[in-house]
Structure formats: C-alpha cells, structure tokens
Write a structure and sequence with these properties.
182 residues, alpha+beta, Immunoglobulin-like, seven-stranded mixed β-sheet, 4 helices, 11 strands, disordered N terminus
C-alpha cells in the first residue's frame, strides 16, 4: 500500500511551472488531488447566480463546501469510491452531507427539480472508475462546526481493483470562513 501525505511541492499539472495550486494537494506519479475550501459567501453567490431561492441559499451557507479535483496520472484505472474515504474531527467520524441529506433538505423547502439537478451535477460522484489520464471533480459538503478535520482517501487501482491502493491524507483542514464584515 502506498501512503501519501498532503505536500507543498509545486504540481506539474494543471498549474503553470512555478505556481502553487490554490489549496491543499497531493501530487505524485499516480494522481493529483486538490481540495478547494469555499466560503459561505462564495457558495451562496454560485448558487444564487443559478437561480436558487433564498431558503436554499440559507441552508447552503450553513455548511462547509469543498471542491475536490482528482487527476488519474497513472496508466491504470483509479477507483474513486467515497465510501473508502474517512473524514474525522477530533478522532471521531464526520458524516458527509450526501445526496440523501440534500434530497431531504430540498423536499423540506420544495426546491424545483431544475435546481436539484443543478446542485447534483456540482457534487463529486460517489463512485467513478477514472481511466488513465482522466480527471474528475465536484463538491463534497460537511457540517460547519468550527472543528479542524482530516480526510483519508483510499483509491483502489487496476481494472478489477487488484493492483494495489493509493492512500492520500489531508490533515488539519478548516472550513473557509467569510471575511469579517460580510
């Protein structure tokens, strides 16, 4: 098993030589993985610009959004399966606010199907077989509770998930906050 930690070296792709990616990342010969933590205001603006009603924006602002970008840099299949991710705070599991959670919220506020579809396409897929050189991205959402959290993500490799595993770990992550006065 290959164990990797979040690093601070310069990534070759997709950033220009000498630039640092805009968030915690891991870059090695198997994958590039970047996390972008967004403020409540950023997420509110994004969804408001797509016609989401105030009740939906209010619920979105209460949570912690993180855009995940993954590039399979290997010559074999890399399996994205969020069920193989562990998110913890203070050593205890943190439950992702997944599609089931959001469907309940959307039912409660009677969000239109068009907005539900828009929200759905912005989320990171739960399962995806990333082919060689294939990227994927999307949001994962966590409760906003002020605690630092850790993400450990395991990716099986190979067509039948039998060519080993890549593990990445991001520690001491914090939900982004709006600047004072907003």
């Amino acid at each position: 098993m290959l164990l990797l930690g979040a690093c601070v070296s310069v990534a070759a792709v997709p950033w220009e030589k000498g630039e640092t990616p805009p968030g915690p990342y891991v870059d090695n010969d198997r994958l590039f993985m970047l996390l972008r933590l967004h403020t409540p205001e950023q997420m509110a603006a994004f969804y408001e610009a797509r016609g989401f009603p105030p009740a939906a924006i209010e619920r979105i602002r209460e949570t912690c959004f993180m855009t995940v970008h993954i590039d399979n840099k290997s010559n074999t299949v890399l399996w994205l399966e969020t069920a193989n991710w562990r998110i913890t705070a203070d050593g205890k599991p943190v439950t992702r606010l997944d599609r089931t959670y959001w469907n309940g919220v959307w039912d409660e506020i009677r969000l239109s199907q068009a907005s539900r579809s828009t929200f759905g396409w912005t989320q990171l897929p739960d399962t995806r077989d990333l082919q060689p050189q294939e990227p994927v991205g999307g949001n994962i959402v966590l409760p906003r509770d002020g605690r630092a959290f850790t993400i450990e993500a395991d990716f099986f490799t190979g067509k039948h998930k039998r060519q080993g595993m890549v593990r990445v770990k991001f520690e001491n992550l914090q939900c982004a906050e709006d600047p004072p006065g907003e």
